[in-house]
């Protein structure tokens, strides 16, 4: 065995222990669904993720079947090439050239088939991972619906609860980490319904800031007056 063959054999052996090429269930639970602030938002996200996985699964299934058909067509072309070639030549040189051409084309077709088979293997693994993730979101959806029944995406109360929670979470996180509140975030909060607790919180914050600015301005004016009177 050559050094290169031994090297690649070691790589293959190590790669057998590689993690699956998909999101972990922990990631799906806590970062894809867990980041949604309400149960309805988590239900909606489950449906979005399921729709995406379903489309990918259908596309992969078609690609696998198309690739299998392509392999069969290559095999047919290979057989036709041999059957259509008349090796009975008076000229020995032409006969040898034809044999060489057959050998080269045969090797190329073999590599092509191997490449396509490798692609099928990759697509089947990806298909398996997509199905695993789809099962996760289906089970998560069914579990969440036991807590709260799915509402229409345009349900007024569900949307109100979602935006109230989402904006409140963003504002509180920025306040706790002493980050400035972006003007777009404040405008969004002020656009909420009149009974919104978040809207009232933002109005109080703005009024507090305004009062602090007025106090600071008054102090500055007083200092200037004292300087001018001297």
- What's the total helix number? 7
| Mean pLDDT score | 88
Shape: elongated
Percent strand: under 5%
Report the C-alpha radius of gyration, rounded.
34 Å
Number of domains: 2
Helical/strand content category = mainly alpha
Count of β-strands: 0
Most strands sheet:
none
> Percent range for helical residues?
over 70%
Note the run of SSEs as H and E: HHHHHHH
Low-confidence stretches: none
The span between the termini is 97 Å
Query: Which oligomeric state applies?
Result: single chain
Description:
The structure is a single chain. The chain has 230 residues and is mostly helical. The chain has 2 domains: 3-147; 156-229. Helices cover 81% and strands 0% of the residues. The protein has 7 helices and no strands. It has helices at residues 3-15, 25-33, 39-84, 92-147, 156-176, 183-190, 197-229. α3 packs antiparallel against α4. The termini are far apart. The mean pLDDT is 88.
């Amino acid at each position: 065995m050559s050094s290169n063959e031994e090297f690649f054999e070691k790589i293959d052996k190590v790669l057998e222990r590689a993690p699956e090429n998909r999101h972990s269930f922990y990631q799906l639970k806590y970062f894809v669904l867990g980041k949604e602030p309400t149960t309805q938002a988590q239900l909606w996200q489950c449906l979005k993720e399921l729709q995406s996985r379903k489309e990918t699964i259908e596309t992969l299934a078609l690609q696998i079947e198309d690739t299998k058909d392509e392999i069969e067509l290559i095999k047919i072309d290979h057989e036709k090439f041999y059957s259509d070639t008349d090796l009975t030549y008076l000229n020995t040189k032409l006969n040898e050239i034809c044999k060489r051409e057959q050998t080269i084309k045969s090797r190329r077709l073999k590599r092509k088939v191997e490449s396509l088979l490798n692609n099928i293997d990759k697509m089947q693994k990806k298909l398996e991972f997509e199905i695993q993730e789809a099962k996760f979101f289906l089970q998560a959806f069914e579990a969440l619906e036991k807590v709260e029944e799915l509402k229409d995406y345009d349900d007024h109360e569900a949307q109100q609860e979602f935006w109230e929670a989402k904006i409140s979470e963003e504002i509180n996180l920025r306040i706790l980490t002493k980050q400035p509140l972006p003007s777009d975030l404040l405008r969004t909060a002020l656009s909420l319904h009149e009974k919104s607790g978040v809207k009232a919180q933002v109005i109080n914050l703005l009024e507090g800031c305004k009062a602090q600015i007025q106090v600071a301005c008054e102090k500055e004016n007083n200092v200037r007056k004292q300087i001018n009177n001297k």
